[in-house]
Design goal:
EC number: 2.4.99.12
Subcellular location: Cell inner membrane; Cell membrane
Strand order of the largest sheet: 3-2-1-4-5-6-7
Number of helices: 19
CATH architecture of the largest domain: 3-Layer(aba) Sandwich
Keywords: Cell inner membrane, Cell membrane, Glycosyltransferase, Lipopolysaccharide biosynthesis, Membrane, Signal-anchor, Transferase, Transmembrane
CATH class of the largest domain: Alpha Beta
Helix content: 40-55%
Shape: globular
Largest sheet: 7 strands, parallel
Family: Belongs to the glycosyltransferase group 1 family. Glycosyltransferase 30 subfamily.
Radius of gyration: 22 Å
Strand content: 15-25%
CATH superfamily of the largest domain: 3-Deoxy-D-manno-octulosonic-acid transferase, N-terminal domain
GO biological process, one term: lipid A biosynthetic process
Number of domains: 2
Length: 421
Amino acid sequence: MFRLLYSLIFLLALPMALINLYLKGRQYPSYRTRWKEHFSLFEIPPIENSIWVHAVSVGESLAAIPVIKRLLKEYPQYSIIVTTTTPTGAERVQSLLGDSVIHLYSPYDLPWVVNRFIRKIKPKLTIIMETELWPNFIHYSRKQKVPVIVINARLSARSAHSYARLPIPTNRLLLDPVTHLACQNVADAERFKLLGAEDYKVSVTGSIKFDLQLPNNIDTKTRKIFGDWGAKHFILVAGSTHAGEDEIILSAFRRLIEQGIDAKLIIVPRHPERFDSVFELIVQRGFSVFRRSDRQRELQDEQVFLCDSMGELMYCYHHGDLAFIGGSLIDRGGHNPLEPAALAKPVITGPHVFNFSDVFRSMQQAGAASMVEESNLVSVLIELSQDSKRCKKMGVAGKAVVEANRGAVSRTVKLLHKYLK
């Protein structure tokens, strides 16, 4: 009964989903041409056996990449289908994996759509990244005898509380059809168990995001992007910022300059659709600004570098002296701090980090990250900009945290082996 009601609500909301698809298609024309994929209407070569990996957007797609590469190497007899919800996620998958996988947009979670999708790709195994527990998606995979494994599984205390308030037992709706939950840490595993997941279905494999690999060309490409820009300045990198944070960061940056600190700012908005509005905001605030996408001019001595490109956040962190992690000064739950940590960069974050609470806790305990409020952001920035020894110490500590927690990819792939015999 629940899935029937859920499917009816989903169907009623479908016009809004199509409007959203149309609006996104204005920025990503290729996305608009592929809208039928959401209804499992697509043509691909005949497939006998596949592995279906579902990610949502950029973060989940990047986390899935090392697992997918291992599966491609160890199971060449399987086609790997990667689905994403967003065009930015699709771009990351296609740029990093190319033709080695088949990318499709994820089917809408309606019974006939999901069933059609499964019949077309014939998965031997369905892998879900992190928290994408769609009722029909999971139910019909299991009904067609396809194991469903959630890897890099995480469940924040806030999400667990929301699930616990559902009127129908969560374990029957979402957790019972799941074959296994490979969790990032003990806290995530315990939350799933409290919601009704049976002990034998839950294990802790660690966070795949600790296994990130730095690009081989990171030094040469960083220099190609930035040259000597900011070589004698303190460079603050504001990564994955959201609306409401850019204003705060720009105000803090203005205060740094007013305090006589030679500073530069690299700002990287989380969502591409905000690139233009963030550019306009920077100009309105009176800063000179260079857009990464502007191929008509050279980067000179601008105060702000706007990274309005995809897949270059790590190069921005590499060029900077201090990384601020966005989505944390507003109530979005924060983003991944491990890229700057792996690059031995000191990290600061706002208080809203529930998406990565355990990672930030480990980094804070190691002295690799500092948590700030809007009220003391400027004072912390001034302090760190004048204390290079402390910044270096924080960076070294952050890199040590990353190195100490590697190995999740191997543990995850080992778990998957038993379902691919």
